[in-house]
Amino acid sequence: MIIARRTRLVGGALLVLLMALILLPFASMFTTALHQSGTYPNGLDWPSQPQWGNFGAAFQAANMGAIFSSSVLIVIAVVPVSVAIATMAGFALGQLRIRGGRLVFLLFLLGLTLPFEGVIVPIYYEIRSMGLLNTRWAIILPLIGLYMPFGIFWMRAHFLTVPHELSEAARVDGATTWQLFWRVHVPLARPAVSSLGILMTVWTWNQFLLPIVLVDDPLQRTMAGALGAFQGQWGTDIPLLSAGSLLILAPTIVVFVVFQRHFVTALLQGSLKG
Amino acid sequence: MIRTTTSSPRDDRATSRGSALRALQVRARDVRLHGWLFVLPALAAYGLFVLWPLIQTFKFSLYLWDGVAPAQWTGLDNFKTVFSDPDLISVLEHAFQLIVFFSGIPVVLGLAVATVMQRLAPRRISATARTVLFLPQVVPLVAAGIAWSWVLSTSGVVNQALTAIGFGGVTRAWLGDFGTALPAVGIIGAWVLLGLCTVLLLTGMSKIDPALYEAAQIDGAGAVREFLSITLPGLRQEIGVCVTVTVIAALSAFDIVYISTRGGPGNATMVPGLMIYQLAFFNREVGLASALAVVLMVLVLVCILPIQWLTRKASDA
Fold it and tell me: What is residue B134's predicted lDDT score, i.e. its pLDDT?
């Protein structure tokens, strides 16, 4: 028993050490953010006079309020639509089993491992010919398309697990296809739908490639894209850059902590299925 | 009694059942049609912003085009450049070197950490560690890149620690040194992906039947033997998933490299994703960028399909 307790202590200590290593970059960024703006402090060094005002200054310098609402607008435009059309398609492919469904599914599967860099160049010219460059639509519309492979994969997997007898019973009671979908299957799919929604929200928030290629104005971008611009502008002022970065990553951490259980299962199942 | 006297209602019922069946069949055909209406919006979005650009990438890759003047057909010349230009070859090599860091470290270290979490540590600490390890997976990669650029910089924590323990001589700007820049970028990726792999492997471990371990102990197997004969085979599928996800992340790395090094110093950390971006939008070599994009996509498939095949097949057996 004593030996077991000792190994437990060692194991626990190892984990604490690992956690410290994982948190180190955040800690370093935090102490740096509290130093005098424009100075070049040491990596991990608590300042004698913490400059809490740096957070306010970074908020102003990056125009954080505008960036935040821009990101929220993009998320609101992307996530509900993506989730809705992916759920509908997943329902048709997993539950209705439409003719030619396997082929359509394979077509979507093709996009599952696709790196965004593979299609970003033509997307740029496509968006340009639509006259949408430098607008939020340039991020919103492609993202909806790019999310379809995973979204459909995810929702189809859910609808495959729902017993087919349920649909048959609703049919016998005279339900139309839409009623079957909306009244019977959507309420049952709520956990799968909300997980997908959380995942897509974070992916959108953190999306970087599309904003930097398609939108020049940081105020029309996502948070991550705006952070890229902020780095370009304030890269030499390390304390201010650290404060700005912390402000930009704070919302994702809050979302993560609040929805932690959802989140971990969603990401895990997401990668397991993918 | 009823059987013999009431034969006509029975016929009625039979015919009505027949017509109901026919009605259901007709409806089933409608359903198939309606079903397509459900797929259509998703298919439209996918077609417009994935399939069509995908076809365009293949098309562009066969042309010499600066994005403005009319494109010129060049056949496979762009692909020949991708595989003969020393800069572009080194870009592909970097992608493979990153796999060692993005996949190797998270999977090996993840196995060790998951073992500790499951069997050797107090439960409460394990639960906290799960959350903390997952954090890098949630924050924007851009923020991770900025934080790590600072950690690895001349006056960063790494050098601070090295100096403190008497290794002041090896301190350097880790991301700015030709020898260490790529491994340094790799470490950032490993930091991001370690949590995902650990938690995935942990979930897999909890599915392994504890009776197997008991049986092994009765047979006198040591901890190493247990790990090799029970844990590892039981995790085959989860390891497959970890490798798949991390290999894709390594080959298509962009955000971290863009933020921490922009491909530098020189071309020491240039990776395919960033190169595509540079070629297409700064060097105005859209054709060459597209050829590299095609190579990247094929490379991902070539790496992923065998892994999938191996792990799926093994788990079926």
Answer: 87
**Contact A96/B140, CB-based, under 8 Å?**
no
**pLDDT, tens only, B175-188:** 999 999 999 999 99
- Average pLDDT of B280-309? 93
> The tokens of B307 are what?
């892994």
- Give the closest residue to A88 by CA, choosing from A158, A137, A146: A158
Contact residues on chain A for B288, CB-CB shorter than 8 A:
none
Are A92 and A83 in contact, with CB atoms under 8 Å apart?
A: no
**Rounded (to 5) percent helix, strand, coil in chain B:** 80, 0, 20
Per-residue tokens: B54: 């995908």
Residues 256-275 in B contacting A (C-alpha not used; CB under 8 Å): 258-259, 272-273
Which tokens is B184 given? 């340094």
Amino acid at B26: V
Question: Is residue B11 predicted with pLDDT exceeding 60?
Answer: no
**Which of B35, B56, B136 is closest, CB to CB, to A22?**
B136
Nearest to B150 among A209, A242, A253 (CB): A242
Torsion of CA B264, B266, B269, B270, to 10 degrees: 100
Q: Which residues of B touch A181 (CB under 8 A)?
A: 38
Tokens standing for residue A176: 């139309």
Kindly give, in sequence order, each residue whose CB lies less than 8 Å from that of residue B217, ignoring residues fewer than 6 positions away: B226
- Is any Cβ of chain A less than 8 angstroms from the Cβ of B227? no
Q: Tell me: the pLDDT tens digits for B101-114?
A: 999 999 999 999 99
Largest CA distance in chain B: 107
Residues of B in contact with A267 (CB under 8 A): 134, 137, 196
- Higher pLDDT among residues B23 and A35, named by residue: A35
Which of the four pLDDT bands, split at 50, 70 and 90, describes residue B30?
Answer: low
C-alpha distances (whole Å) from A205 to each of A73, A79, A86, A191 are 10, 11, 19, 21
